[in-house]
Design brief:
The protein is mostly helical and 181 residues long. It is 62% helix and 2% strand. A two-stranded antiparallel sheet has the order 1-2.
Length: 181
């Protein structure tokens, strides 16, 4: 295989759009709140003033949809007591949510929130976006775990968007025609 062919077989990294950048920033903000104990108001103010589309320590942050960012962070914080048990049920047995890495927990919470409350975004888009966010932090199994957990949640909360298992009427035996019909 040539170098050109090898490069084509690697997953393409898509540049983030404004909502994608907002998702990434929301995960960072949630992480900061979880680890540093920062308040919601402080984190929102810091990110909006110094990070979303700004340069910090010589690094240029992508322009992000500030209202999407706020909606995600506020929504996760407001609904975390509901989100955590839902995510926990979707994890492999023996891996409670509290054992999951803080960054990965933030990704799962934001993705779960979006699947449950932002029905205006197709579930497959939400899953794909959070897999990309996971790839920004991890190279190993974590993006697959995000895919598995969010796919399970999407099928639970938005079953109409997926083919899903065969419906009972499809698996039943065809009815016998009535006599004389």
């Amino acid at each position: 295989m040539t170098e050109d062919n090898e490069a084509r077989t690697e997953p393409a990294v898509r540049p983030a759009n404004k909502r994608g950048a907002a998702r990434l920033s929301a995960v960072q903000a949630l992480y900061q709140m979880d680890v540093g104990g920062s308040s919601l108001a402080d984190v929102l103010a810091e990110f909006e003033a110094f990070r979303l589309g700004a340069e910090l320590d010589g690094e240029q942050y992508r322009e992000a949809d500030a209202s999407w960012f706020r909606d995600l962070v506020k929504g996760v914080v407001a609904e975390q007591r509901y989100l955590d048990p839902v995510i926990h049920r979707s994890l492999v047995a023996g891996w409670p949510l509290r054992r999951i890495d803080t960054t990965l927990r933030a990704i799962l919470r934001a993705g779960a929130f979006e699947l449950m409350r932002r029905k205006d975004v197709p579930a497959r888009v939400v899953i794909s976006e959070y897999i990309d966010v996971a790839r920004a932090f991890y190279e190993a199994e974590e993006p697959r775990m995000v895919n598995g957990v969010l796919d399970k949640l999407a099928r639970e909360f938005r079953s109409s968007e997926f083919d899903g298992p065969a419906k009972p009427e499809q698996s039943e035996e065809p009815e016998e025609p009535e006599e004389g019909a």
